[in-house]
Design brief:
The protein is α+β, with helices and mostly antiparallel strands and 541 residues long. The chain folds into four domains: 65 residues, no CATH class; 217 residues, P-loop containing nucleotide triphosphate hydrolases (Rossmann fold, 3-Layer(aba) Sandwich); 129 residues, no CATH class; 50 residues, no CATH class. It has 14 helices and 20 strands. Helix 12 runs antiparallel to helix 14. It starts with a strand and ends in a 13-residue tail after the last strand. The C terminus is likely disordered.
Length: 541
């Protein structure tokens, strides 16, 4: 016997040797040295196909030496299943319920082996995103647990969060920056503070090469990259810290079939490097590269968890559209599977990545905010043009007294402050509009970025302070410009600056409007002394 070849040897009778070779359709009889030849119906043959259910009578050596050959059906014996590797991530009876009582996940149990790629599929609303958020530690389960290498992901989340990568559906990088800029700032915030600039640059270059973004490294993320390339940039951001656990929520959403399969193949390569990769997806084009498919039915129940070639047969469906129709409308039984045990005992300690210092985080955030501001041409143009337009509204107010009350004094000695009040109202509204335009857009567009960076150690207070420094300075500059332009050409009454302390005493110079108050030498309350002189600078009187 030699593999799929059977040998019939008859040396005693000197008949020679026959060979039987296994083929796709049956067997092939081969004359491998039969004395005087092999005959079928008195015709010599060198090889003869044999089929099941079709017996053949051949003559070996001479017509009187007849041999009847028949292929009989052999019962198919399935090979024993390959032993599944021990689980690295163990999910035990996981359940999530909202405060209103709605069940999002219901008794979910399965295991994920090391170096494995797992796809979570199911209809919309089945709980795929909730499952990924719970597995990654972002959502705490109502019941059950998620274990990784013997540690509880939720109980030890502060320690493990630097080892868990999560790519949400939203973009997690600033669209105005280039790929290299975005990854560089992310590396400064995520890598340990002891990492040198050269080491950070090497890490950034490494993930760019790994995700195939060398040609796009200096292109803007929002305007010069395709959807698939932006997804790869998001994945590259999470790979900066080389996490052994990687979760991705709809990474192929909106991509064409070619890019869809390309992303799945890259995830397969990442899993082969030793990671546990879990992806929630509606696409079924790249499921064949996965090790495990988890099918979620309505109500967050696991309907199946196993290899991809067994999914359709388990449900009795011919294709995936039929399976999704069944999951959407049919009553699918729960997949009863006992969660495997962990592959190793509880790790005694996993050193977390040291957080960057407060000063380092603040400087990085300020530099990034400035880079985003100057890279966004539309935002920068709005920053420069808004003061011009709003300052023009101040000149709509009738009158030529500006903000001066003295010039509006009536013969009876009363002040008519209508013009000054209107101008102040316009300036205040202009300042509010400029501040809102600068800040609201900024915070809304960065919501997903902030949530992801907060999960890996970003300080919310420092994030807010960096916005105050950059946007507050810009708003202050805008306010000064709109005030100056809004009062341009209007009379301003000011006097030479007096100094605090009155008389000839030295002190700090006072603004023109404040210098009308003069202190007496006795130190009593100041008295108001109007003056008709003007000050050479522009501050309104």
């Amino acid at each position: 016997m030699n593999g799929s070849t059977r040998v019939y040897d008859a040396p005693v009778s000197r008949l020679g040797k026959l060979e039987f070779h296994r083929t796709d359709d049956g067997w092939m009889l081969v004359d491998a040295g039969v004395a005087d030849g092999l005959f079928l119906n008195s015709c010599r043959v060198h090889q003869l196909p044999l089929f099941e259910g079709r017996p053949v009578e051949v003559a070996v050596g001479s017509p009187d030496r007849l041999l009847t050959l028949e292929v009989l059906p052999v019962p198919l014996v399935k090979p024993p299943p390959k032993p599944r590797p021990a689980a690295d991530v163990v999910v035990r009876k996981l359940g999530v319920t909202t405060p209103e009582g709605r069940v999002l996940l219901d008794q979910v149990s399965f295991g994920l082996a090391p170096s494995s790629l797992t796809a979570v599929i199911g209809p919309s609303g089945a709980g795929k995103s909730t499952l990924l958020n719970t597995l990654s530690g972002q959502t705490r389960p109502t019941v059950g647990s998620v274990g990784w290498q013997g540690r509880d992901v939720h109980a030890d989340h502060d320690e493990l969060r630097f080892r868990i990568g999560f790519v949400p559906q939203e973009e997690i990088l600033h669209q105005q920056l280039t790929v290299r800029q975005g990854l560089s700032y992310a590396a400064q915030l995520r890598l340990p503070p002891s990492t040198t600039a050269a080491e950070r640059e090497a890490v950034v270059d490494g993930v760019i090469v790994k995700m195939g973004l060398e040609r796009q490294a200096d292109q803007r993320i929002g305007s010069q990259l395709s959807g698939g390339q932006r997804k790869r940039v998001s994945i590259a951001t999470e790979l900066l810290t080389a996490p052994p656990l990687l979760f991705l929520d709809e990474p192929t959403s909106g991509l064409d079939p070619g890019l869809d399969r390309s992303v799945m193949q890259q995830l397969r390569a990442l899993a082969d490097e030793g990671r546990v990769v879990v992806v929630a997806t509606h696409s079924v084009l790249g499921l064949d590269v996965c090790d495990t498919i988890v099918v979620l039915a309505r109500g967050g129940r696991v309907a199946f968890a196993g290899p991809p070639d067994e999914v359709l047969g388990h449900f009795g469906c011919d294709d995936y559209p039929q399976l999704f129709d069944l999951l959407q409308t049919g009553d699918v039984p729960r997949h009863l599977a006992e969660a495997p045990k962990a592959s190793r005992p509880r790790s005694p300690w996993l050193n977390g990545v040291p957080a960057q210092s407060a000063g380092g985080q603040l400087m990085t955030l300020v530099r990034r905010n400035l880079a985003v501001l100057f890279a966004d041409r539309l935002h920068l143009a709005m920053l420069l043009l808004m003061p011009l337009g709003l300052a023009a509204l101040s000149h709509v107010v009738q009158g030529d007294s500006g903000l001066s009350l003295r010039l509006t004094r009536t013969p009876a000695g009363l002040f008519a402050g209508g013009e000054a009040g209107q101008r102040l109202t316009i300036l205040i509204i202009a300042a509010a509009l400029m501040g809102a335009a600068m800040t609201i857009r900024e915070h809304v567009s960065e919501r997903a970025i902030f949530r992801r960076e907060y999960a890996v150690g970003l300080s919310p207070g420092l994030y807010f302070l960096s916005k105050v420094i950059v946007l507050g300075s810009a708003c202050l500059l805008q306010g000064l410009v709109v005030t100056r332009l809004g009062l341009l050409g209007l009379p301003v009454r000011t006097v030479p600056a007096y100094t605090a302390g009155g008389g000839g005493r030295s002190g700090f110079p006072l603004p023109c409007w404040l210098s009308r108050w003069r202190w007496s030498d006795s130190g009593s309350l100041p008295s108001y002394e109007p003056s008709t002189r003007r000050c050479p600078h522009w501050w309104p009187s």
